[in-house]
């Protein structure tokens, strides 16, 4: 596979960049933190979508070195921002962990080492895990999630509602945040029934002591609806696209 070979080279040549998408506190309208999203800017291929190369990197195992780089780079950047912008509460950074990384044997050691090396405030790092990563073996997954939590970091469940997680297990996962998948948020415009679904997901999360991030907010109307439903956080093009560091700092300098 040519893409796989090119990916291997790209990791060596450091052709990746992290973009950061703001996550907004819906009570204060302030930036509460960011989600790191990887981008591949290839001299040969140009801008390659992660929707294309993340699946290939997962199948090939290249997500392990790539994922390590993403974690290291994200932690390093957040430590810099904590020095540069002294927000109270401090900015959070969410970093996606792929299913393959979740079953990596030395995951805990690897994460711990990066946290120590960068000296980042551990409370401010949140790993995003999908339902599919944890439903293979529930007891094993819970043990692993507990170990990640014991490192001092936070956890969120990404794309909630699209996977297979059984509601009967959800309360056993030591998850801090539920991210309501964009498909539900977008469909709120279509009918009151879809809004009721989002409302129910938010209530479910709150009853389990989780806070909620609504993803994929593209319209102002969605913001008001979500505020009325007591959703804590929002993310989406309405607020900002994912941005490279310099553009994000411009945004912060304009809005803080
Ligand atoms: O950023 P964008 O919407 O184009 O991302 C497309 C897909 O790639 C999404 O499913 C997203 O979760 C995934 N993705 C983007 N960045 C990362 C990353 O840093 N790590 C992992 N594992 N997946 C990512
Ligand atoms: O799978 P995950 O939720 O991590 O992926 C997030 C992806 O969603 C990113 O690739 C990001 O670029 C994309 N995204 C973020 N906000 C919006 C939005 O408002 N609309 C759409 N269509 N995509 C978004
Ligand atoms: Mn995510
Ligand atoms: Na998501």
What secondary-structure arrangement, pairings included, does this model have?
Elements (H helix, E strand, L loop, with lengths): L1 H11 L3 E10 L4 E13 L3 E3 L1 H11 L2 H22 L7 E5 L2 H4 L4 H12 L6 E6 H4 L3 H13 L3 E7 L6 H4 L6 E4 L1 H6 L4 H16 L3 E4 L5 H9 L4 E2 L10 H11 L1
Parallel strand pairs: 2-4, 4-5, 5-6, 6-7, 7-8, 8-9
Antiparallel strand pairs: 1-2, 1-9, 2-3
Bound molecules: guanosine-5'-monophosphate (2 copies), manganese (II) ion and sodium ion.
Structural notes for this entry:
By secondary structure, the chain is α/β, with parallel strands linked by helices. The protein has one domain (2-251): EAL domain (TIM Barrel). The protein has twelve helices and nine strands. The chain has helices spanning 2-12, 50-60, 63-84, 99-102, 107-118, 131-134, 138-150, 167-170, 182-187, 192-207, 220-228, 245-255; strands at 16-25, 30-42, 46-48, 92-96, 125-130, 154-160, 177-180, 211-214, 233-234. An eight-stranded mixed β-barrel has the order 1-2-4-5-6-7-8-9. Helix 8 links the parallel strand 6 (154-160) and strand 7 (177-180). The radius of gyration is 18 Å and the shape is globular. The chain starts with a helix and ends with a helix. Manganese (II) ion is lined by residues 35, 96, 128, 158. This is Diguanylate cyclase/phosphodiesterase. Residues 1-256 form the EAL domain.
């Amino acid at each position: 596979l040519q893409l796989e070979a090119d990916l291997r080279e790209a990791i060596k040549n450091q052709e990746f960049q992290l973009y950061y998408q703001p996550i907004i506190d819906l009570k204060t309208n302030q930036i509460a933190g960011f989600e790191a999203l990887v981008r591949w800017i290839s001299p040969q291929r140009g801008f390659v979508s992660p929707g294309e190369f993340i699946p290939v990197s997962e199948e090939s195992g290249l997500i392990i070195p790539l994922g390590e780089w993403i974690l290291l780079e994200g932690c390093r950047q957040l430590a810099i921002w904590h020095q540069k912008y002294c927000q109270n509460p401090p900015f959070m950074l969410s970093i996606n962990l792929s299913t393959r990384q979740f079953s990596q044997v030395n995951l805990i050691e690897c994460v711990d080492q990066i946290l120590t090396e960068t000296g980042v405030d551990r409370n401010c790092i949140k790993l995003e895990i999908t339902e599919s990563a944890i439903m293979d073996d529930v007891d094993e997954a819970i043990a692993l999630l507990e170990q990640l939590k014991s490192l001092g970091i936070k956890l969120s469940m990404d794309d909630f509602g699209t996977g297979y997680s059984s509601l009967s297990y959800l309360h056993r996962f030591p998850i801090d945040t539920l991210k309501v998948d964009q498909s539900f948020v977008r469909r709120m415009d279509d009918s009151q029934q879809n809004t009721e679904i989002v409302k129910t997901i938010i209530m479910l999360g709150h009853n389990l002591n989780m806070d909620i991030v609504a993803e994929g907010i593209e319209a102002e109307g969605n913001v008001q609806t979500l505020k009325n439903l007591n959703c804590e956080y929002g993310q989406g093009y309405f607020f900002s696209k994912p941005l490279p560091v310099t553009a994000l700092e411009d945004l912060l300098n304009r809005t803080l």
